[in-house]
Amino acid sequence: GLWGALTALSPQDWEQRQEEDTLLIERILLLVRNVLHVPPDPTEEQGVDGDASVHDRVLWALHISGMDDLLKFLASAQVEQQWALHVLEIISLMFRDQSPEELAALGQGTAGAEHGEDTRELETLRQRELAEKRARALQRPSRHSRFGGSYVLQGLKSIGDRDVVFHKGLHNLKSYTHDLGKEPQRVPRRRQA
Question: Which of 65, 87, 99, 142 sits CB 3.0–4.6 Å from 3 for a disulfide?
Fold first, then answer.
């Protein structure tokens, strides 16, 4: 009900907002502040160790309803600066039971654990990539040599008394002529037969 009304109103432009809408937003923020302002009562909250306190359950309900995202929006939006003090007070009441040292240590511990997990995941991916690269290198034939071999053609004489040495592959042997590898002489068009 109230959360839905607030989420529907806050992204609107300032010019389109009515006076009733502004009053409704202020009343909802004051209600949230007053709910969070209620001090803890140890005699009433006799739960098992590790059980969530009433304050923690209220914070969880605010998170489930999306109110925390809305508070972040109201705190960061330039046009919603009039709510800055209300939002600041609500946030300070949200962290009322935690000391700054505990919050800082919790954040570092989580960041350190996530960093270690990310490092392990990256190392696993790197090892897998190296293994795939090695497998591809083994499957690939060795580097192709452009040297197709040299063959002596017996019975065909080159200049002098020696046999012709053929430096191409055997499949090119059928098209062998003495002019192989020589530049053909160009004949001008007017001299062509």
Answer: 65
Do residue 92 and residue 21 come from a single domain?
yes
Residue 167 sits in which domain range?
A: 145-176
**Claim to verify: residue 93 and residue 32 sit in the same structural domain:** yes
**Does residue 122 register a pLDDT over 80?**
yes
Token pair for residue 53?
Answer: 């306190």
Average pLDDT, stretch 87-97? 84
Q: Give domain status of residue 23, yes or no.
A: yes
Same structural domain for residues 80 and 153?
A: no
Considering the entire predicted model, what is its pTM?
0.43
At 176, list the tokens: 């062998």
Give tens-digit pLDDT for 159-188.
778 887 777 766 666 777 777 767 888 888
- Domain annotation covers residue 19: yes
Cα–Cα distance measured from residue 193 to residue 187, given in angstroms and rounded to the nearest whole number? 10
Pairing of strands 151-157, 163-166: antiparallel
In this structure, is residue 70 part of a structural domain? Answer: yes
The stretch 14-29 carries a mean pLDDT of 75
Kindly state the DSSP code that residue 171 receives in the 8-state scheme. G
Q: How many domains are there within the chain?
A: 2
22 contacts 9 by C-beta, under 8 angstroms: no
| pLDDT of amino acid 15 | 53
Tell me if 122 is assigned to some domain.
no
pLDDT reported for residue 90: 86
Closest CA to 73 of 132, 27, 125, 6: 6
